[in-house]
Design brief:
Number of strands: 27
Distance between the termini: 47 Å
Oligomer: single chain
Strand content: 25-35%
Number of helices: 18
Structural class: alpha/beta
Mean pLDDT: 91
Length: 516
């Protein structure tokens, strides 16, 4: 018995549950494999309260692992597959991961990380595909068909960056180790039917290590939706897959909107799309012309949500509502209470701008793994938290954002935090001061730029630029690396020493807008 799959396997045993580039897995096959995998992990001592790391592409095996966690109670850390070995080793140590499961694309990164002393917590590793690690299929085969006697809920702990310069794990009620019965997750997922059809076909067109892509794929899967996935996004293929598989719902980010809109007319005109009932977007501000063009083309199936890894879904807005009041991120969900607070902690009235705080009527909350100070700083009081965004609520109850974590860079829907990049650049002997900011990029919305104050005017700036870029290639994933380096004579700072990043950004954004 795999309680979250029993009904689907009984009612639709031969229908596909998971489809990727390599093939398909039926509901019956999925139940068998998840039962064996759950037993295999348990046989190796992985259970409630334990953690494993998974560095895998969008492939069927990832969802088997997530389902095994949902029945076994352990925590899964979905590792960003763009990360280099140094970043992977850090997360393994910070999370205390006891196992590492990887896809063959990431074999070299994984084996290098496993040789790092920080990866000493790893007790066993496996690879889906070819490589020197133990075979994932052998791991599945080692488990018996006898289901676990007690099935406890486990799930993901996503790592998100912040002011410390290193990513921090966000641990919520679904992460595991809290003794929650697995069947509770089915009840939680039932609320997802408000967003996507329970028995539909879901297209995963973005990285599943992102919390939004997980929510808009794994939760529908538990509801009975078939998941069609691709490791890499291709605009034309996305349209083809929607029509070929009669996809009912998908989640995209604004950059994907732009790439689809830029397709040749003959490709766009050949798209039917009649099966699509919900196209959700979030994760980054969407330029109004892109969104309006998508609505004009695809109709009122385009919906937007506002949320975060920490707070899940907070608000949503339909196409019709957005056309009436473009710029709002919608009304807060019934289960979410939103407070607008000033710098003194006082609650503000309608149309007054301040820091946004949230409280879930479901009692859900989060903590930053291994960082009680960061956790405390994110809370106004127990259960009342902020993501650092600034905004207001209008007279009609609609939420508006003024800044989206203004220091954070959002490039192609991916959150990039300057502190981690600045920490790498600051190690160079020629760097006297450094700040990393986001500047306009036509395709991705923003791109990373480093502003450097060199320690001596006689230093060769071109040489410094080359050396900084080389350091970033070694230490940082590609999407975090600066696209360019500008030099400044003196970094603007406040009287207390804080860099005035707005002063640095403003010249680059003189003819642009970073707000929704």
């Amino acid at each position: 018995m795999a309680i979250l799959l029993d009904n689907h396997a009984a009612n639709h045993p031969d229908q596909p549950a998971l489809i990727d580039e390599a093939g398909a897995t039926t509901w019956s096959e999925l139940k068998t494999r998840v039962t064996r995998l759950s037993r295999a992990f348990a046989d190796r001592g992985i259970g409630s309260g334990d953690t494993i790391a998974v560095m895998m592409g969008n492939r069927r095996e990832l969802y088997e692992i997530l389902l095994a966690a949902a029945h076994t109670g352990f925590t899964v850390v979905p590792v960003n597959w763009h990360w280099v070995a140094d970043e992977l080793a850090y997360v393994i140590e910070d999370a205390g991961a006891r196992a590492l499961i990887v896809g063959e694309r990431f074999h070299d990164v994984a084996t290098t990380a496993l040789g790092d002393p920080r990866a000493a917590t790893i007790e066993f590793s496996a690879i889906a595909g070819a490589g020197s690690l133990d075979a994932y299929e052998d791991l599945v085969a080692s488990g018996s068909d006898e289901p676990l006697g007690e099935q406890l809920l486990g799930g993901p702990m996503f790592y998100t960056s912040g002011t410390t310069g290193r990513p921090k794990g966000v641990r919520g009620m679904l992460s595991g180790g809290q003794g929650i019965p697995s069947e509770v997750f089915a009840l939680i997922c039932s609320s997802m039917s408000e967003y996507v059809p329970s028995d539909g076909i879901t297209l995963l067109a973005g990285p599943a290590y992102h919390s939004a892509q997980w929510a808009f794929s794994f939760m529908p899967l538990v509801n009975g939706s078939t998941i069609v996935m691709r490791h890499k996004f291709d605009a034309a293929e996305t349209l083809r897959l929607i029509d070929e598989h009669a996809v009912t719902n998908t989640h995209l980010v604004p950059t994907q909107f732009k790439r689809i809109l830029d397709l040749p007319d003959d490709v766009r005109n050949g798209f039917d799309g009649s099966s699509l009932s919900a196209l959700w977007h979030g994760a980054a501000p969407c330029p109004a012309p892109w969104k309006r063009a998508m609505i004009d083309w695809m109709g009122p199936v385009v919906h937007e949500y506002y949320g975060s890894t920490e707070g899940a879904f907070i608000s949503r807005i339909s196409s019709d509502e957005w056309l009436e009041r473009g710029g709002s991120v919608g009304k807060p969900l019934e289960v979410m209470e939103v407070f607008v607070v000033d710098d003194d902690g006082q609650h503000l009235k309608a149309n007054e701008t301040g820091t946004l705080y949230f409280k879930s009527a479901m009692g859900s909350d989060f903590e930053y793994h291994n960082d009680p100070e960061k956790t405390a700083a994110a809370h106004l009081e127990p259960g009342v938290f902020t993501t650092g965004d600034v905004g207001h609520i209008d007279d009609d109850g609609y939420l508006w954002l003024s800044d989206r974590k203004i220091d954070m860079i959002i490039s192609g829907g991916v959150n990039i935090y300057p502190a981690e990049i600045e920490a790498v650049l600051a190690e160079h002997a020629a760097v006297g001061d450094v700040a990393v900011i986001g500047v306009p990029n036509e395709e991705f919305g923003e791109e990373v730029k480093a502003i450097v104050q060199i320690s001596s005017p006689s230093i060769d700036r071109d040489a410094v630029t080359d050396e900084l870029m080389a350091a970033c290639r070694e230490r940082l994933a590609g999407y975090k690396r600066p696209r360019s380096v500008d030099f400044i004579d003196e970094m603007p700072r406040t009287g207390t020493g804080k860099i005035l990043k707005r002063d640095l950004r403003d010249p680059y954004w003189a003819d642009e807008s970073r707000s929704i």
